[in-house]
């Protein structure tokens, strides 16, 4: 598994804060650092400029935008981020030493998802969470966008939020194709919330719909994998869930966990809805297997 800079580190947080306002050249430098932190940590400023397709002057301005006095201070911060945030040494050793069999791949995949879950938990910020909860609870309507692997996460959120919120929850991608999704988003306004979900390789449709919703005044909550995601500069709030997988393009495991946690937190804030569902379930006991 290639190492990327975890969103829990101070350096990734700094990049995430300024990423929406970065120029194209600065973004190329940021993207290279986020996706190649190990390599960057050993590079000279000239090396980073060459590999990121920028210039030494651009790299110098980039690290100053991040709040560092110079490149040496930036590289020291990157080395510290790697020391604190790299995957455990034993997991790295496992990746090299385990024989390549179906069973070893199976076990390694589960370990990788456990690592993604641990990073997701570590990245949770209480301030962001509180803002997201407030927005979900006050929204008049909630529009959910997700395609590919994210479609299934979106469907889970649609079902869960519908149970516990008074708001009208609309899964824009559930049926009718992209044209219907666009019609839904064309109707959003300042009282609405759009929950956009996208993982690598990011869906252009999801990003475009999130932009449209933002332009129309809606609040945008994103579930994505890293500060370099194209959803980050659009969203008002972002939850990060790493989606790394050694063999597949991505894994939605951690994003599913985030979605499930969001529904659980909403249920906790709506005891009246929980009580009503309990009463309904008791009236339908005869339909259950046990």
TrEMBL record:
Pfam families assigned to the protein according to its UniProt record, in alphabetical order: HTH_6, SIS
Gene Ontology MF terms: carbohydrate derivative binding; DNA binding; DNA-binding transcription factor activity
Keywords, alphabetical: DNA-binding, Plasmid, Transcription, Transcription regulation
InterPro entries assigned: Homeodomain-like_sf, HTH_RpiR, RpiR-like, RpiR-like_SIS, SIS_dom, SIS_dom_sf, WH-like_DNA-bd_sf
PROSITE patterns, sorted: HTH_RPIR, SIS
Keyword DNA-binding: yes
A biological process from GO: carbohydrate derivative metabolic process
Domain HTH rpiR-type residue range list: 9-85
SIS domain mapped to chain residues: 132-272
Official protein name in the record: RpiR family transcriptional regulator
Organism: Microvirga ossetica
